[in-house]
Amino acid sequence: LLFTVYCSGVPCSLFDQQPTTNNQQPTTNNQQPTTNNQQQKKMNPDAEIQRLRDLMPASGRMLTKIQHKPQQTKVIETPFPVPWKRNSRPIYINFDLWRELRRSHRDLILLREVSWLIEIKWFQPDLYQGATLVGTLGTIVEITQGDAVGVLVAGGLTGLAFRQLWRSFRSPKREIEADEAAIKVALRRGYNSPEAAEALLNGIEAIAKLEGRSVLTFTELLRTQQLKTRLNLSSVPVPDSVMSER
């Protein structure tokens, strides 16, 4: 009787604390799947590079070379190719970020970069391409002859022509044309047109988030707007005045 009275006098909060302590154990156990998922997301760069090479068109496999570059902040980067490295056009990928993309996004983003690279043809009739090549050769000749003034003139011509050529291939029209070319290649890799366009659209937006960018660049906005128009997600196409720029 005394024991019963004593227990009935104990505050209820003391009894309530015991179940709380027991319930904390599952919380610790639930953290294990997170570690397992992180291990499963590891990507073998060599295996992924081979898969991406198989995805490319034949011309892309001959002209481009994918390289793992973990120190770069961009997910994927394609430097403007130089004429003296015709068959070695690098594509730098940070596979630590690349693995965060869905496979369809990776496919279309890679095909898009390859399509842009293989369209840059140095040895064809073009004002700026010709001026760049002539300027480069002129610079070499002037250096061998020791003409300082000639070197400056030829070097200036080369730099100006190269800059104009870079602007031409980085124009909105060229960028959107590369998107269209990538979608065409994807059709031969098992995608249909809407799937390819949607994967490219979502891939562009996903890359911006992975790189810590809250907004897209001006060119990316134009590209996504064109893709949305293609998918009937928007009725406002990219203006013809922008598409006609070179």
SSE series? HHHHHEEEHHHHHHHH
- Order of strands, main sheet, comes to 1-3-2
Largest sheet: 3 strands, mixed
Q: How many DSSP H or I helices? A: 13
Mean pLDDT: 77
State the secondary-structure class: mainly alpha
Our Rg estimate from Cα atoms comes to 28 Å
Strand content is under 5%
- Anisotropy-based shape: globular
Overall number of strands: 3
Distance between the termini: 98 Å
Unreliable spans: 1-8, 10-40
Helix content: 55-70%
Provide a descriptive summary of the structure in words.
It is a single chain. With 246 residues, the protein is mainly alpha-helical. It has 13 helices and three strands. Strands 1-3-2 form a three-stranded mixed β-sheet. Helix 7 packs across helix 10. The longest helix is centred in the middle third of the chain and has 22 residues, at 148-169. The radius of gyration is 28 Å and the shape is globular. The termini are far apart. The relative contact order is 0.09. The model is unreliable at 1-8 and 10-40 (pLDDT under 50).
In short:
The protein has 246 residues and is mainly alpha-helical.
List keywords for this structure.
single chain, 246 residues, mainly alpha, three-stranded mixed β-sheet, 66% helix, disordered N terminus
Write the topology of this structure.
Elements: H1 2-8, H2 12-29, H3 32-40, H4 45-55, H5 58-63, E1 64-68, E2 76-77, E3 89-93, H6 95-98, H7 103-118, H8 127-145, H9 148-169, H10 172-187, H11 193-210, H12 218-230, H13 240-243
Parallel strand pairs: 1-3
Antiparallel strand pairs: 2-3
Helix pairs in contact: 7-10, 7-11, 8-9, 10-11, 10-12, 11-12
